[in-house]
Design a protein that fits this description.
Blueprint lengths: L2 H5 L3 H23 L7 H21 L2
Length: 63
C-alpha cells in the first residue's frame, strides 16, 4: 500500500483500514506463535502499513 493511495482516503476509511491491518497483524502473530507462519516477512509489511496509516491520520489531524 502506498502513502499516496492513503492520502486520498478520508478519516473513516483510514480508521477502517487501520482496524483491518491490526486484525491481520494479530492473526499473523498467532500463526507465528503456533509455528504455522511460513512467510515471516508478512509481519514486517503489515507493521509498516500500520505505521503509514497512522502517519497519514496524524497528518490529517493537523489540518
Amino acid at each position: 500500500m502506498k502513502a499516496s493511495e492513503l492520502r486520498t482516503k478520508d478519516g473513516t476509511e483510514l480508521q477502517a483500514e487501520l482496524e483491518s491491518l491490526l486484525k491481520a497483524q494479530f492473526n499473523l502473530r498467532m500463526q507465528r506463535a503456533t509455528q504455522q507462519l511460513t512467510n515471516t516477512s508478512q509481519l514486517g509489511k503489515v507493521r509498516r502499513d500500520i505505521a503509514r496509516v497512522r502517519t497519514i491520520m496524524t497528518e490529517n489531524a493537523g489540518k
